[in-house]
Specification:
By secondary structure, the chain is an alpha/beta fold. The chain is built from six helices and five strands; from the N terminus they run E-H-E-H-E-H-E-H-E-H-H. It has one domain: Sugar-phosphate isomerase, RpiB/LacA/LacB (Ribose 5-phosphate Isomerase B, Chain: A, 3-Layer(aba) Sandwich), CATH 3.40.1400.10. The chain has helices at 12-24, 42-54, 69-75, 89-97, 113-125, 132-146; strands at residues 2-7, 28-31, 60-65, 83-85, 103-107. The structure holds D-ribose (RB5).
């Protein structure tokens, strides 16, 4: 599975931690940056990760900022992206089962490193349930046309 990962300066250290742990688990990682704690703008990285997904170059994405919120707001502007900001395991599981989320966003100032890894790993392993949830995801796609 190919996973695109990106972060702003607030998420840089957690992004590096997550990258290493995911690589140790056998995931193929595409890291779009940032590569230091110098101040940058999170929408740039949300765009890069989203782009890899919508162009079929990554299966899922992981975005890290201070809260996870800015990244999710930005990524959800991209057609085809369903980004879920998660701070607990229930949200991580349900964002896959019911929403077929393709990006998980986590906040380095909200949760600890190991907690974030657990949420991300769970997200990547959890299948979409389909069924009635497929119909609802289709309606989300229709909103992209209406918007
Ligand atoms: C950066 O200070 C911070 O605003 C950013 O990482 C993120 O939390 C935005 O949503």
């Amino acid at each position: 599975m190919r996973v695109a990962i990106g972060a702003d300066h607030a998420g840089y250290k957690l992004k590096e931690f997550l990258k290493k742990r995911l690589q140790d688990c056998g995931y193929s990682i595409v890291d779009v940056g940032t590569f230091s704690e110098d101040s940058v703008d999170y929408p740039d990285y949300a765009y890069e990760v989203s782009n890899l997904i919508v162009n079929g170059k990554a299966d899922f994405g992981v975005l890290v900022c201070g809260t996870g919120l800015g990244m999710s707001i930005a990524a959800n502007k991209i057609r085809g992206i369903r980004a879920a900001a998660c701070s607990n395991i229930f949200e991580s599981i349900m964002s896959r089962r019911h929403n077929d989320a393709n990006i998980i966003c986590v906040g380095s100032r909200v949760i600890g490193d190991e907690h974030a890894f657990l949420l991300v790993k769970t997200f990547l392993e959890e299948p979409f349930e389909g069924g009635r949830h497929q119909r609802r995801v289709e309606k989300i796609k229709q909103l992209e046309e209406k918007g």
